[in-house]
Protein 1
Amino acid sequence: MLSHPASALLCLFIGVQTSLTAASTPASAPALPTMADLLAQSRPADWRALDPERTLYMDLPSGRVVIELTPWFATGHVANVKALARERYFDGLAIIRAQENYVAQWGDPNAEMPGKARKIQRAARTLPAEFDRAWDKRIPFTRLPDGDVYAPEVGFIEGFPAARDPRSRRMWLTHTYGMVGAGRDNSPDSGGGAELYAVIGQAPRQLDRNVTLFGRVVQGMELLTTLPRGTAPMGFYEKPQQHVPIRSLRVAADVPPADRTNLEVLRTDTPLFAALVESRRNRREPWFQRAAGRIDLSNVPLPVRARKEPAPVR
């Protein structure tokens, strides 16, 4: 049973959906709450603060990119990337690739040059691949109502876009806008987190279960999407002076509280989020003349806002 105040909104959506078609027009449909309306009606319990121990700050000359790490997937890579950050591995390295409609990639520009490559002190250089994981019914999965080309079921797990297969009993993260993964060579086990990338274009879902995903950008995507595109094959920068320097990459818990970026994200396991999904499936703002009646995983917005009070120190 739904006990949240937004349950009434959700019930309204469900009732109205049974009588709407994709050809409905605003004039023939009742006024429904928009995403802005729903967010304005949200309560503190609809939001969760970022955990500083599961958040990375990548500081660039242009600003800060905030990356949330998932507790449910790729635990080995999450731990290793944090270890790399804590030994200051990424400081002074660079964004070396920006491929149009695909990814931005960062790491050591000299990684293939044994005499010049940055040494890893304590973290692992490579790890076993973590492309997916066993199905676990304890993991809170909010399933989307519409179909998907790449997976039997898709939805969200604590804000992370994910998929699962009831037949194989496997679950995995998906390559949608803003997702962060660990680059690798041809061998599945050749990555470890020393080379990272973020999706900056249309969701390349063919990469699902082929690369290890472990996080998502929750703020600062504009700093990556507006990078000059590389002109070498695969969008790599041809000249060292084109590289975008990384000033630092830190675990948020290691940053003084006064210097943290305190954010909170909308929970994806609430009736309010379900109502938000419905509002995006059937847009009723005055500009829209047709309601799509569908939404895919890549087009569900994940709201983030500044937190009024600093997150608790753990």
Protein 2
Amino acid sequence: MSVRFVFHVGPHKTGTTSAQVTLHAHRDRLLREGVLYPASPADAEHPTSHAALTRLLARGQTGEFWEWLQEARRTAEDRGCHTVFLSSEGFSAKRAWKPLAQVVSRIRRGLRSECRLIYMKRDLTAATYSMMVQRLHNQAGFLHGFEHDLRAWARQFAAQKQGEERFFQRLGAIMPQLETVPRSELTARLLRLGTDRGFPDIVTGEEGVSVAKFAGTPAVLLSYPLRVMEIIAHGGTMASPKTHLAAISLIASVTLDEEAFAALLRDFEVAARREIALGIEDHARVTNLDCLLDRLKRAFRILIPPST
């Protein structure tokens, strides 16, 4: 029996954490149904996903990744499984693209086994907003390289996503739209796309819901303008961790009643989404212009062939 390999590559902000927690929680059930969701290599930070494996790809350690994959294949064969199912956003990281393509080719041509990739698409404005909220929470001054311009950052993010989608299209990935999948059915849909079998009783939980997780306190919303002020006040560099932590502690002490906080969150989201949408529109206009110029260049070469 030939074992099929399925790579759920994410990307980030498409419900991947919730799906991974659910897949991990149902490993025994999946095993009985012929689907091996292998235990991840020791990874205290991401025990339910295969992030540790994607770091091997990102570091160019394709040989080690391949050895692990073959061990997973042998385990699947011993257990009578028809599918090895892997999931990590790290598969979609640009540094992993080339080694991942090599692995996929080796599976399809070398092992003559089926290899499916699942890339979940999401509305670009929503995905960009979700990523922005997480980065505001985790990375002080993440817009610093864009002169604190959310619109410029959104423009670059849109370009990155477009390149990412093109890469996985070339690899033949299955690319469903997140908005068409009810959240509770996300894991079941991924399994059906990967295995052609239904798992309607596997319900996806709410773990890792990003905006609710990261935008749930006034500190996240109020800290962004202060972080920009810190950068400016310190001559274009980030304030020291000590200063920054003190500032965040001060913000966290601000008391807002539920109604005032809801209004603040609503205004923040409306303004941020507007700037993001404008940035994405800027990117689309630039892309369209580039395409037009490319077409003109090709037409010029056809009309006036190079001299020999």
Protein 3
Amino acid sequence: MRSTIPIGPLMTDIEGKELLEQEKNFLKQACVGGVILFARHYESPEQIKELIGSLRAAADKPLLVAVDHEGGRVQRFREGFSRLPPVRSFLDKTDCFDEALRLSELAGWLMAIELRSVGVDFSFAPVLDVDCGISEIIGDRSFSENPEQAGRLAAAYRNGMNRAGMAAVGKHFPGHGSVAPDSHIAIPEDDRAFELIEQHDLPPFKKLIDEGLEGIMPAHIIYRQIDDCPAGFSRKWIKQILRQQLGFEGVIFSDDLSMEGASCVGDYPQRARTALNAGCDMVLVCNDSDATHEVLNGNCLAQNGDESSKRLETMVGRFPVDREKLLTSKEWQQSVVQIEALL
């Protein structure tokens, strides 16, 4: 049954492994709709499950809990979770593309089912960027340098996530693979014409959108031939291209507003306001409690409308997973052996 309380448009984080008293207060605010977890929040599966339970209890309303948990370099929970290889390994360590597809689906399921077993709603995955060999921040986080292969492998990965009851978020729209600077520490620009981006970078996004992709995260990159502001703050990219041209109906999450790639837009309230006005359903403010409070106090977070709230509800984990039963199941045990063999 759908909740009568809308999910708020702000996703942020907390300080450490336990919920502080002052953090309980801001979680109750109507505009706070999600919490993203990082490695500093994690000690063990039991501890993270307890922390997630305390987050939900403190909020006392619908609250999305998310994490960046792709595998390879980007895996926030380590000890007690299966080690996940970078997604490029599905191609690099197999001789048959059908086998790469099978392993991609299996890895998506394994990643998602373990996260669901501790109460995480979704991971910000899969990466849909097409690698060009120039972006160190993307690199082996990309499924392939071939747009068609990247799309098919990512679609298989999403299928595995869905089978575990988890929605997927494709990133970083319209593509980060052709840009060398890291948007965490720079303001990257891409001077290519739209036609080149459409041919090389958009195919994976188009494929997964056509298959019902639940969420997308735009890049903090300025595509100068299309717009003068980063894609995540651009009405042209979000409303015209992503919504109208590509027909995307799912959730649009901003990337972290504390990244350097967002700094050209203004202060934190201005970044949040611009992203939401451009068409994002939820904005992320991470690793900066002062910035979170600036956004909360900046009169820039209007309560989500009905359409946006409905979209955000699709990101809720679809069914509970009993962790003890999972770890004794043959499916999980066999999956771990096959996926860790790629490391």
Protein 4
Amino acid sequence: MVLIRSVSISNVAPIRHIEFETASRLNLFCGDNGVGKSFILDAMWWTFLENDTPFRGYSGKVSPQSLPQIKLVADTYTPIATYIREQQRWEYSGNPQNLRMPQNALGLYFRVSNDFIFWDPLRSNLPLATSLSQEQTWSGRPIDGTQMNIINGLFRDWLIWQRDPDQRKFNTFKEVLAKLSPPDLGVLEPAEPRRLFTNDSVAYPILRHSYGEVPIIFASAGVKRILTLAYAIVWLWHTHEENAQILGEPPQKTLNVFIDEVENHLHPQWQRRILPALLEVGKCLAPDVNIQFFITTHSPLVLASLEPHFDEERDKLFHLDLVHKNGSGSEVELKEQPFIKHGTADSWLTSETFELGSARSIEAEQAIQKALDLQKQARPKKKEIRDAHRELGKHLTDGDRFWPRWLGFAERHGVEL
């Protein structure tokens, strides 16, 4: 079992210094655009399970004396990546065997663009963690210069699994897909494949919705994202199990999963379901599999959906913020936040996690602020009160909770509205 226990990042990209201890099940990162949520996932993945693209993490803004460095503490080793300025490259250390990868970790990184990166320590033919575009994930990717495939792709594997008499992989895929299904579409489940075009002899995978059957090539962006995520998890796990059987080794019991913007492409109804569903996915793979998640989100509905499921012993919520320092510009700070139940999405929006002054429109918020400024005056002018009332009427609904306070104020100052 390989769990990431702690992370430290210093003088890299937008981050001067952050460090935090991780949770064993769910690590959720929130914060404004540009403060480094995705970057933290990138830095962790690259240091823990290097991918086949150059790391983009060095920033020239740091002083010559500062040392750009990323350090992770995991169960079996402590990988450290340090940027060597003179050579313009990253140097890696921390593995006792001086290997670039841990040999007992299984990892998946699912990105906003629907591509994903995976690492399986039992795939000896792949020296680096492998990146797959969404097209490759669906259509397959061969190993360069060979007749072997890194991955068959969702399209082919769907049909292979569906026709396999064993049905184990297909049943796992159906179970994961059912858990990730949105409530408005009902349970997403595979239907019988069929040909679609007169000049094409290929049978296409078909997805059954609550309103009918749809070929997966015509599925919506949200459905395609969920199909890709479900397939990536099931494919990685079952391929790893088969690799373990071929080599006569036990499969791993921990899967490290990174997901950037988990709500991407998803309707609010789906946003309320996706995170609780992901927490249940491990049970579909095997009874004793533990998944350690690192997930970013901008969605208050994702946070609200977690309220019945958050476990303080296994889950953590982190918030990144840009803090202005006197005389030294701004720095990104990361803080672990206590998980407080706010109930509604509106309340989450105005919490410390999302920091909005109001869940209303900007214009409504500005109108209310002007009204509040008037209420602070000892002797406000009647004309100003009427003008403020007209602005409030343009932007507030009839049932807005600000009205009783405002109307009482106007009445006390003798203004008929």
